[in-house]
Design a protein that fits this description.
By secondary structure, this protein is of the alpha+beta class. Helices cover 29% and strands 38% of the residues.
Length: 175
């Protein structure tokens, strides 16, 4: 994807080096960081590498910026989970608190999922979030993802074990 994907009231475009400071600040935001996977990129070097991979291999990796009226509002990403089975992981959906509650995250993720399934020919998109992340769970359900299971006490986060909640969406769910 070289051009931006246009949504109603927002735009989704590939991240560039110019977005690095915004991405670092968003990933460390006090209302964002506690809900991110412990292994998610937060540091400049790791995020710079994700941007590089997104530019070098656009059909296998994607780091995107959500813009609302020209302002950076959030970030989301995907990565190929299985080439053979055409499965993509949707991950790192972060939105600044001042942009929440307007349906922007849902609409942007829906646009990216459709791009993955219909433009890039993935068969399945999946995501996983912490069991304590009710905002992400509600988001996945609104998107039409099917709750496929729970990995009980799978992750050490914030000084205690947390469940991982698994969701999946296949192309037929949207056809």
């Amino acid at each position: 994807m070289t051009d931006a994907l246009e949504g109603e009231g927002f735009r989704l475009r590939r991240a560039s080096a110019d977005d690095l400071d915004f991405m670092v600040a968003l990933a460390s935001h006090e209302d964002v960081e506690p809900f991110m996977a412990a292994v998610s990129a937060r540091e400049p070097d790791a995020l710079r590498e994700e941007i590089r991979r997104s530019e070098a291999e656009p059909e296998q990796h994607g780091r995107f910026v959500v813009e609302v009226d020209g302002a950076r509002a959030g970030v989301m990403a995907f990565e190929t989970f299985s080439h053979r089975s055409r499965i993509a992981d949707l991950r790192s959906l972060m939105l600044l608190p001042e942009f929440r509650g307007r349906g922007i995250a849902d609409a942007a993720a829906r646009l990216l999922v459709r791009h993955l399934l219909f433009d890039l020919d993935y068969h399945r998109v999946q995501l996983e979030c912490y069991g304590f992340n009710q905002r992400a769970i509600r988001h996945a359900e609104r998107m039409g993802f099917v709750r496929e299971g729970v990995k009980r006490k799978a992750y050490w986060r914030h000084g205690e074990w947390a469940d991982g909640v698994l969701f999946g969406l296949v192309r037929e769910d949207l056809e």
